[in-house]
Design brief:
The chain is an alpha/beta fold. The protein contains seven helices and ten strands. It has a single domain, classed as Alpha-Beta Barrel (TIM Barrel), CATH 3.20.20.
Length: 215
């Protein structure tokens, strides 16, 4: 059984990033979406970026921001990946010279949401989240995990990432049900928006590891 990757998202403090790295997280998410309570400006994000070791992927989450705003994030923060949560089309997502993930909102009409996958042939992965279309995520909303595609039929591999309402109490069950390439969590490891809990981060990682050893 392959190991499920883990992305912790919505960091606002360098100390929380250091704890996540020590625990073995694979990706660190920094949020720039205008309506998110975890939103960072470029200066804040640059300082947090310095706390992330080279071997950990840095993901910049944006939502319906203009070209100049995204370009400033790319140039000044230097993320490894972009994650688009809005109505951005394929041409926009591919215009910054970085691999990207596209969020798929499963909280409204899942079948309509899944039909959008074909619109993003260059996406490196899809983040299937529990929020409805037009929302920025991070709200802790779940969806039916069995709706996730078990594989994405594309010329190149596209990763399946599971998000939405995950926490230490349910992540093992979610991984066993959906077998995603990665899980993505924000509110489920927090004591308050943007404030991560070392205990909840550790318990979440333990839950993923437990699921990975069960066929």
């Amino acid at each position: 059984m392959s190991r499920t990757r883990i992305k912790f998202c919505g960091f606002t403090r360098a100390g929380d990033i250091a704890q996540a790295v020590e625990l073995g997280v694979d990706f660190v998410g920094l949020i720039f979406a205008p309506r998110s309570p975890r939103r960072l400006d470029v200066q804040q994000a640059r300082r947090l970026r310095e706390a992330v070791p080279e071997e950990i992927g840095v993901v910049a989450l944006v939502m319906d921001q203009d070209v100049d705003a995204v370009r400033a994030i790319v140039d000044q923060v230097r993320p490894d990946l972009l994650q688009f949560h809005g109505s951005e089309d394929e041409a926009f997502c591919t215009g910054f010279g970085l691999p990207y993930w596209k969020a798929i909102p499963m909280g409204g009409d899942p079948q309509t949401a899944l039909a959008r996958l074909r619109d993003y042939p260059a996406a490196q992965g899809f983040v299937f989240d529990g929020h409805a279309a037009g929302e920025s995520g991070g709200s802790g909303q779940r969806f039916d995990w069995t709706l996730l595609p078990s594989a994405l039929e594309r010329p190149v591999e596209q990763h399946v990432l599971l998000a939405g309402g995950l926490d230490a109490g349910n992540v093992a069950r979610a991984v066993r049900a959906a077998r995603p390439w990665a899980v993505d969590v924000s509110s489920g490891i927090e004591s308050a928006p943007g404030i991560k809990s070392a205990e909840r981060m550790r318990a979440f990682i333990d839950g993923v590891a437990a699921a990975d050893v069960i066929p």
